[in-house]
Amino acid sequence: MNTTVVRRPAVAGRFYPGGPEDLRAEALGYLSQANQAPVRALGVIAPHAGYVYSGHVAGAVFARVEIPRRCIVLCPNHTGMGRALAIMSEGSWETPLGNIPIYAELAGALKKRFPALEEDSAAHRAEHAAEVELPFLLLQQPQLQFVPIALGRGQFEILEQLGMAIADVIAAKNESILIVASSDMNHYESDAVTRVKDHRALERILALDPRGLFDVVTQQDISMCGFGPAVVMLTAARKLGAKSAELVKYATSGDISGDRDMVVGYAGVVVA
Fold first, then answer.
1. Domains of the chain by range and CATH?
2. Which of 92, 127, 199, 201 has the fewest CB atoms within 10 Å, measured from its CB?
3. Cβ atoms within 10 A of the Cβ of 172, count?
């Protein structure tokens, strides 16, 4: 395995503390909210804004689940750089808490099962949505290895096919692999409007309905940036036998900033 590829942090010191001690203290503070024993999950949805706004939601969802040694982290492509279905299958990602190796064997199996996935580090270089989840995962699972996939494509059929492929690859492996869908909810509308729109999307997520989520987001102007990752995760989890979805925590940026005129919604969901 070629471990010379190291993806450097793009938003350390901006979205979350850049120093290891400060980052550890802040992330552990968010992870300490758990008041129930963690469950073994197939997938989660977690937000990816700056920790000051959404860290409490992300911490709640990651504290709710057992983090296995291997994860797939699906994120949207905010930058527009790189390929539309971009995977990295070698090297590691640097974080202030240490480097996290890419699980090359799993990445290779995914590319073989779903050849539309293209090897592409450019899509990941400046993208924050996977990066901000990693400190939480690493603190919960020091032996973490992962596969990052950035999605810049939103056709339902492609998302569904990728979800089916991920389920097949996971089913063929005799180990627990968590699918993390990185997504914020509705963007830049009033708190009241955002909560109504997010409720519609969450209704479909909690019903384990990937097609319904895709339709409600695209037809009702819900600016959920990671609906693609969420559709993929739900599709895979259903094929792997998911029975339930739990909304662990919901908030908007207005809960922190006090500005209710223009907010972003954040949801933490566990699928098991």
1. 6-271 (3.40.830.10)
2. 199
3. 9
